[in-house]
Amino acid sequence: MPRNTSRTAPDLSIVVPLFNEIGTLEELHRRLTQVVTLLGLDTEIIYVDDGSRDGTRDALAALAAYDPRVRAIRLARNYGQTAALAAGLVRTRITRPTNGKTRRPRAIGCTWCSTWSSTA
Cβ contacts of residue 88 below 8 Å, gap of 6+? Predict the structure, then answer.
């Protein structure tokens, strides 16, 4: 799996705020990594755990250990999606935000690709 081993920022950072997403996290990550692979860019995926109590934290730690593109941020308690998104955004260079739900992943990927192509 690609990893940005230099000190330079990745080409793309994706921020995903999560709250109690243990049931969808694996599928979400699978779909995101499919899109990221198609993009062919040096990418990081920043998951922000917004105080989950359902095992999301442990699942994120496992993902980060397995996939070097993953960065996991854990908030001490639930501050809400906007605060979680902000916590991730301050650690990025380029972002295209989404959420932890698995709705419309192919449409999201197409939007990312067209947005990236028109701004790169």
Answer: 15, 16, 17, 46, 47, 48, 73, 95
